[in-house]
Amino acid sequence: MYFYPKDNTSGCTAEACSLRDHYESLQGAGYEVVGVSKDSAASHQKFKEKHELPFPLIADVDHTLLEAMGAWGEKNMYGKKTMGTIRTTFIINEEGIIEQIFTGKQIKTKEHATQILEVK
User: Fold this and answer.
1) Whole-angstrom Cα distance, residue 71 to residue 65?
2) 3-state SS string for 5-54
3) Which among 18, 55, 94, 117 has the fewest CB atoms less than 10 Å away?
4) Mean of pLDDT over the chain
């Protein structure tokens, strides 16, 4: 499960496309991919269609799931502090146990699928 700030932004698109391009390898390694952001379902649908994303995207518009998973918090952009989505990926096993967490600068958006595949 990966949490990302916004549909159709450069970093979020790079991350989604990395996961798309390696989707079969991820599934072959036993992973399912689910993306979550605070964007609307309509925004997600356009994002999925534009980039041919084969995995579901959850619209967490009130950021309930984001907050519950610790992926919502204070961010500092250009010296201004705001609340928003903290880019985070959780590797969750079949029993629902979190095995690994990637967060913030650990995530290389263009190579994120490869990072995940290196976990197993």
Assistant:
1) 8
2) CCCCCHHHHHHHHHHHHCHHHHHHCCCCCCEEECCCHHHHHHHHHHHCCC
3) 94
4) 95
User: What pLDDT shows up at residue 78?
Assistant: 82
Residues recognised as catalytic: 12
DSSP for residue 64: H
Nearest Cα residue to 20 out of 54, 59, 50:
54
The alpha carbon dihedral of 92, 83, 14, 38 has a sign of positive
Q: How many domains does the chain contain in total?
A: 1
How is the beta sheet containing 88-92 ordered, strand by strand?
57-59, 35-37, 2-3, 88-92, 98-103
CATH of the domain at 82: 3.40.30.10
- Residue 118 CA to residue 120 CA, distance in Å, equals 6
Position 79 confidence tier, pLDDT thresholds 50, 70, 90: confident
